[in-house]
Amino acid sequence: MVESSQGLRSQYDDEISLVDLATTFLKRRRVFYAVFLLVTLAGVAYALLTPAKYEYVTLVKLAEKSGGKYIEEPATVIAELDSLWVPDLQATYRAQHDRNLPFRITASNPENTGLVRIVSEANPAGEELIEKTHRQLIERLITDQEQALTRLRKSLERQIESLDTTIDMLEGGQETGDAIASAVEKQLSLETDLESLAPAEALVVSRSNGENTGPSRSLIVVLAAMLGLMGGVFLAFFAEFIGLVREKASEQ
């Protein structure tokens, strides 16, 4: 019975009670305060010194043809932007400045529209460079669209001229009324298609919505405080552990 009581007491002696933990924490509270304040102040300084980031958006409406269709599909234009035009701009900037563009350029197509949406994120200091870069992309995109539009316009004009010749030839023949009517109908359809052609245009160029897209400053401060709290508690107990090890080492 005595041996059992001694073994139980030995077991309890090896355990760490909440009172021991609280005593250790109070003993090393200065370590906790120092770490907590240092990390929190570092978070506040980072939140205040980090410049805000804004999203800059450019919208380009693609060239249209009849029936609400587009000269080139938006997906095709975006593929050219991503795989050809943007890499060319990045390579040119790298060659001129010996560094990469300080922001990314992404392109997308809002659903069920003929718009190409070009987006970049940067702090206000990069606004001028973003506008310049977006304008270069707009110029290239609109030039490409104008070339495609010119090709289609010439094709339609040739078809209309051909039908004019065909109608003139049919008018001199007999029993050609149905053929003439069909040719005139086709010619009118082509003329409608020609008149419905609309060029590409830039609707918005590098416009900021005014909302900070970077991490919230209040969130940074809260996370820094939480990190300081956890780090302070850990280092307080770690300091006590180091102190105990030194005491044991000095006793030996």
UniProtKB/TrEMBL annotation:
Alphabetical UniProt keywords: Cell membrane, Coiled coil, Membrane, Transmembrane, Transmembrane helix
Subcellular location: Cell membrane
Coiled-coil annotated spans: 146-173
Primary residence: membrane
Transmembrane segments: 31-49, 219-245
Residue ranges occupied by any Polysaccharide chain length determinant N-terminal domain in the UniProt entry: 14-94
Official protein name in the record: Lipopolysaccharide biosynthesis protein
Species annotation: Marinobacter panjinensis
